Amino acid sequence: MPNRLPRVLAAEYVEGVETLPIAELRSRRGELQEVEVTISYQRRLCQGRLDILVADLQRRAAGGSSDLQHLIDHLTPILAEGPRLSRGALPPLLAPDFAEGDLCEELDAIIPAGTIGDLPDLTDAEVLQIGEQLRDLEKRLSTERRALHDQLSNFERELVRRYKSGELDVDSLLQ
Questions:
Q1: How far is Cα 94 from Cα 84, in angstroms, rounded to an integer?
Q2: CA 69, CA 50: separation in Å to the nearest integer?
Q3: Which CA distances in Å does 87 have to 83, 84, 90, 100, 113?
Q4: N or C, where is the chain less crowded by C-beta within 10 Å?
Q5: Which pLDDT tens digit goes with each residue over 10-59?
Q6: From the CB of residue 25, how many other CB atoms can be counted at a distance below 10 Å?
Q7: pTM over 0.85
Q8: 106-137 burial, b if ≥16 CB within 10 A, otherwise e?
Q9: CB-based contacts of 134: which residues, under 8 Å, 6+ apart?
């Protein structure tokens, strides 16, 4: 997937969208949707880990219990308070293609899965450093996701134009 991102975000990917055959138009839109689902998935994983770190820092500031069981007992409310899903249309793909390779490689480099279990043993400075790296990753993923949405809009607008102009009809959806 990382190799597909620069290609699908390049201006050339959208050039000539008005003249693309319908099959190519739909194929490119589908590829953009696949990449967007992958980026969104990575972003949600990052946000979840960031929510856990923030909750742990808040617990520390309040002088709460510092054992792993306390963290485990509070995971559901911690993760439930995270960002809300948008009320937009249901995406055509709900999960990324895990055959794309390790989707969590960059995230695991910042905070390996086992580190959450070690969180009570880390210093405040270590937790803050990890949190800053996660924040930076989440910002980058959000920026990439917005750019993908912009690219997708180009293909959606062209499809709408073709339906409105009569170049395509609803029956073509069934082909």
A1: 16
A2: 19
A3: 12, 9, 8, 28, 30
A4: C
A5: 999 999 999 999 999 999 999 999 999 989 989 988 998 999 888 888 88
A6: 18
A7: no
A8: ebeebbeeebbeebbeeeeeebeebbebbeeb
A9: 46, 49, 50, 53, 107, 110, 111
